[in-house]
Amino acid sequence: MTTSEPLPLPSGVVDAWINPNLGALTNAATALFPDLAARMERGTTLEQLIDEMDAAGVAKGVLCSGYAGDGDREWCVRARDRYPERFALSHVVDPREGMAAVRLVEELVTGEGHRLIRLLGLQTQLYYNDPAYYPIYAKCVELGVPVSVNVGFPGPHVPSKYQDPLPVDDVCAFFPDLKIVLAHGGEPWVDVCVKLMVKWPNVSWMSSAIAPKHIPAAILQYANTRGADRIMWASDYPLLTHERCLAEAVRLPFRDAAKLERFLSLNASAMFFA
Predict the structure, then answer these.
(1) Contacts of 69 by beta carbon, 8 Å cutoff, 6+ apart
(2) 205, 226, 228: which is closest to 216 by C-alpha?
(3) How far apart are CA 274 and CA 270, in angstroms?
(4) Could you give the CA distance from residue 173 to residue 39 in angstroms, rounded to a whole number?
(5) What domains lie within the chain, and their CATH numbers?
(6) I need a surface site. Which of 12, 98, 112, 114 has the fewest CB within 10 A?
(7) Which residues, 6 or more positions from 147, have their beta carbon under 8 angstroms from its beta carbon?
(8) Is the Cβ–Cβ distance between 63 and 87 less than 8 Å?
(9) Which residues are in the Amidohydrolase-related domain (predicted)?
(10) Residue 197 gets which letter from DSSP?
(11) Cis peptide bond N-terminal to 156, omega within 30
(12) Are 63 and 108 in contact (CB under 8 A)?
């Protein structure tokens, strides 16, 4: 769903999910995104990433480590230290590691300044209300850091049921102070994602790995009404390029430029850079 005339691109655009390295991606994922294999083979230096962000009009980004290999965490920390005004940090944590995962969250947040902890049902093959996650949720509440959970059918060839967003309802009831971001679109359970945001004030939605032109109509309807402060853009770069995403985003049928600004800039800035 797009408009015929683009809205102006706001200043201060924030990409809420940027990967430095996606070596762990499967062929199934590369098949879903045109030109991804070539981008992965080329690799991306920090200088190239900054140049691409500048060319597209992206002011800031949330770097993601912990999924692609051991070296990406150090890469992300170095990038943030070099450009602290441009990058925030997030990390994928595996709750199946028990207290080691809890200690890792403490180290990430208090030691390195990470602003978001990510959890992937496609990796854990556990529903988000499984007891294994609860120590992570409790630590995140204690530290005041949000969690991101992937929802919807994943690209990799693993069972999809563990990314059903409905179990997040249990989590919200048990941890009402926990800020939760529903990442990766949520299809085919988009209506559940919207209901969770309507019901729980600390639940948001992120468009990671969803090209803006494919954002579900229910999400845009929610953003255009009472949910303008709950929706944020993320590319999941290099799955999607900044250039493509922003060219499509300005043509989305937002009712006005202020709502587009919340989607592309203000909501993520408030959560990850305040």
Answers:
(1) 21, 23, 24
(2) 205
(3) 5
(4) 41
(5) 13-272 (3.20.20.140)
(6) 98
(7) 116, 117, 118, 119, 136, 137, 140, 178, 179, 180, 181
(8) yes
(9) 54-272
(10) H
(11) no
(12) no
Runs of H (alpha helix) within the chain: 27-32, 36-42, 46-56, 71-82, 99-106, 112, 121-124, 134-143, 168-174, 190-199, 217-224, 242-249, 257-261, 267-272
CB 7 within 8 A of CB 226: no
pLDDT digits (tens, 9 = 90+) for 93-110: 999 999 999 999 999 999
Kindly report the CA angle at 160 between 155 and 164, in degrees rounded to 5? 120
Angle at CA of residue 183, ends 174 and 132, nearest 5°: 40
pLDDT tens-digit map of 181-221: 999 999 999 999 999 999 999 999 999 999 999 999 999 99
Handedness of CA 78, 84, 85, 91 (dihedral sign): positive
Q: Say if residue 26's pLDDT is above 60.
A: no
